[in-house]
Automatic annotation (TrEMBL), chain A:
Keyword Ion transport: yes
Protein's membrane topology: Single-pass membrane protein
Region (Disordered): 1-26
Electron transport keyword on record: no
Annotated TM spans: 36-54
Main location: membrane
Function: Component of the F(0) channel, it forms part of the peripheral stalk, linking F(1) to F(0). The b'-subunit is a diverged and duplicated form of b found in plants and photosynthetic bacteria. F(1)F(0) ATP synthase produces ATP from ADP in the presence of a proton or sodium gradient. F-type ATPases consist of two structural domains, F(1) containing the extramembraneous catalytic core and F(0) containing the membrane proton channel, linked together by a central stalk and a peripheral stalk. During catalysis, ATP synthesis in the catalytic domain of F(1) is coupled via a rotary mechanism of the central stalk subunits to proton translocation.
Location(s), subcellular: Cell inner membrane; Cell membrane
GO CC field: plasma membrane; proton-transporting ATP synthase complex
Protein name, UniProt field: ATP synthase subunit b
From TrEMBL, chain B:
NCBIfam families, per database record: ATP_synt_6_or_A (TIGR01131), PRK05815.2-4 (NF004482)
Protein family per UniProt: Belongs to the ATPase A chain family.
Function: Key component of the proton channel; it plays a direct role in the translocation of protons across the membrane.
InterPro entries: ATP_synth_F0_asu, ATP_synth_F0_asu_AS, ATP_synth_F0_asu_bact/mt, F0_ATP_A_sf
Principal location: membrane
Key words of the record: ATP synthesis, Cell membrane, CF(0), Hydrogen ion transport, Ion transport, Membrane, Transmembrane, Transmembrane helix, Transport
Localisation per UniProt entry: Cell membrane; Membrane
Name of this protein: ATP synthase subunit a
A Pfam family matched in the record: ATP-synt_A
Organism per entry: Bradyrhizobium vignae
UniProt-listed PANTHER family: ATP SYNTHASE SUBUNIT A
Gene coding for it: atpB
Spans through the membrane: 32-53, 83-106, 113-133, 148-167, 188-210, 216-241
Amino acid sequence: MAESHGGAKGPAAGAHTEADGGHHSGGFPPFESSTYASQLVSLAIFFVLLYVIVSKLALPKVGGAIEARQNKIEGDLTEAQRLKDQSEAALKAYESELASARSRAQAIGNESRDKANAQADAERKALEEQLAAKLAEAEKTIASTRTTAMSNVRGIAADAAGQIVQQLTGIIPDATSVNAAVDASLKG
Amino acid sequence: MKIDPIHQFNIEPLFTLGHIGNHTIAFTNSSLYMLVAVAIISLLMLASGSQLVPGRLQSVAEISYEFVASTIRSTAGAEGMKFFPLIFSLFMFICVSNLVGIIPYTFTVSSHLIVTAGLALLVFFTVLIYGIAKNGLKFFKIFVPHGVPGYVLPLVMFIEVLSFFLRPVSHSIRLFANMLAGHIALKVFAGFVAMLGFSLGAIGWVGGVLPLALTIALYALEILVAFLQAYVFAILTCIYLNDAIHPGH
C-alpha cells in the first residue's frame, strides 16, 4: 500500500513517509499517531478562529437581521392596528353624525309641518270668521230689509184697508182704528 | 487497477509549521479542509447580506441560525443559549466539513478519530467545568438518580459515573465511524464499477451499472448522514450541557 501511495503521490507522499518516521507500512491513517499533533494543532487553530468569527461577527449579524425583521413586522402590525382603530373610530363618528343629522332633519320636518298646519288653521279660522261676519251682516241686512218691507206692508195694508172701507161704506174710517185692526190681523 | 479505499484518509503534510518537542507540526490536507470549512461558514454567515426580505444565501444563514437556536432551546432550555456560539460552531463545522468531504477527491476532516475526539473532549470539559463552576458539588447529583432504592444505588451510581466518562468516547466514535464507514463503502462500490470495466471490457462496463446505481444511492444516503451526524453531535452536546445547567433532572 505504501508503495502505491509513493507511486501515485510523488513528493507529498514521500514527505509524509519521512514525517511518519518510516512506520507507514500499510497503517490505517486515522490511527497513525504521528499525525495527531498536526491535526490537533490545526483543529485548535481553526476551531478557535471559527468560534471567534461565529460569536463576534456571524451570530450578532444574522441574529440582528432576524430581530430587525421581527421588530419591523411587529411595528407594521401595530401601525396597521392603529390605522384600523382610527378608521373604525371615523366610521363610528360618521354613523353617529348621520344619525343625529337624520333626527335633526326629522325634527325640522316635524316643526315645519306643525307650523304649516298651524298657519293653515289660523287662516281657515280667519276666513271662517270673516265669512261668518259677512253672513251675519247679510242676515242683518235681510232682517232690516224685511222689517222695512213689513212696515211698508203695514202702511200699504192700512191704506188699502182704509180705502176698501171707504169704498164699501163711503165713510172715511178713523186712522187709529184702521192701524189697530191691521196690527191685529198681522199679529194673528 | 488497484482500489485502495483507505487512501482517501491519508494525512499529507503540505508544509511544516514548526516543532513541539519531537513532533513535527505540519499544515496538512486536513488543515486545509478545516480552513475551507471555516471559510465557507464565514462566507455564508457574513457575506449573505442582512436584507429585510432575505435572498437565498441569507435564508440559508438564517435557517441555520434558527435551527441551532431552536435545538438548544428545546433540549437545554433558554439558559442553554449561553452556549449558542459553541454549539453553532460545532454544528456548522462538522456539517460543512462533512458535506465538503463528500465531494469526490476531497478530504473529510471528521473521518479522523483525533479530530472528533478533540471536539468531543472540548464538549466534555465544557460540561464538567461549567457544571462544577455553576452548581458546585450539586453538579454531582447527575450521578444520583431520583427514586432509586438504597441497596442498588451504589451500582446505579457506578454505571452513571462510567457512562458519564464514556460520553466523549461514544460522542467522538459515533461521528468518526459514520464518516469513515460511509466513505469506505462509497469508494468500494465506485471502485467496483471501474474494476469491472477495466477487467471485463464491454460486459464489465454494462455490468457496472448495478454498483453505479448503488453508489448513487449510497451517495444520497451519505449526504443525509453528513447532515444527520452533525445534528446528532450538536444535539448530544445540548443534552450534555443540559446536565451542567440543570443537574437536578
